[in-house]
Design goal:
Elements lengths: L7 E4 L4 H12 L4 E4 L15 H16 L3 E10 L22 H14 L6 E12 L5 E12 L15 E3 L11 H7 L1 H9 L5
Parallel strand pairs: 1-2, 1-3
Antiparallel strand pairs: 3-4, 4-5, 5-6
Length: 201
């Protein structure tokens, strides 16, 4: 595993929340983080059918555009009874043409489970894959997986996305009822971040 020795890293995201998370993580190791929006980078088309593939596309595009080592992530929810859907299309299921509506996406998920009379518990996982890419072509990948089940009706207003219908294993409530601090202790992204720390020593 290659250690990150560079002191400046591009994080290939236009999401301000994710960028702040990364700044806090890298900042503890004296690494400056710059975001894709600050570098006026377009968002590349995510054409792969896996989280790893799409994270690689974003990381490689950022490296090629800037010459900096770059970190990218792809994440979403995979429901077993739906063949892993929505998976890499997690955000797409919420697209309305006028912004994202995750209430609609959650309803679609439950409706499709009901349509096939999927047995309970309706198993699912939140997945996050991080890819760190260097200008010389080297890459390191880190995955975090949070297992649980899809429940209905939605519970809680915390978090975002599909959190209100996802109940993690070992918990009686959904991610939507947890505070950000509670969620960050167990989340798929937190697991991937913890693995990423190995290259920051």
């Amino acid at each position: 595993m290659r250690k990150l020795t560079e002191k400046r890293v591009l994080v290939a995201t236009h999401n301000a929340g994710k960028l702040e998370e990364m700044r806090a993580l890298f900042g503890a190791y004296g690494v400056e983080v710059v975001g894709a929006a600050e570098m006026s980078l377009p968002e590349p088309a995510e054409t792969e059918d896996s989280f790893l593939g799409n994270a690689r596309i974003k990381a490689r595009a950022a490296v090629e555009a800037t010459g900096l080592p770059a970190l990218a992530d792809d994440s979403g929810i995979s429901v077993d009874a739906l063949g892993g859907a929505p998976g890499v299309y997690t955000a797409d299921w919420a697209e309305t043409g006028d912004g994202r509506d995750f209430g609609m996406a959650m309803e679609r998920t439950w409706r499709e489970l009901e349509a096939i009379d999927a047995p309970s518990p309706r198993r699912a996982q939140f997945r996050c894959t991080l890819v760190m890419a260097w200008p010389d072509g080297h890459e390191e990948a880190f995955e975090g997986v949070l297992p649980g089940q899809v429940v209905w009706p939605p519970r809680g207003r915390e978090g975002h996305g599909y959190d209100p219908i996802f109940q993690p294993d070992g918990h009686k409530e959904t991610l939507g009822t947890m505070t950000p601090a509670q969620k960050n202790e167990i989340s798929h992204r937190a697991m991937a971040f913890e693995k990423l720390r190995r290259i920051l020593a």
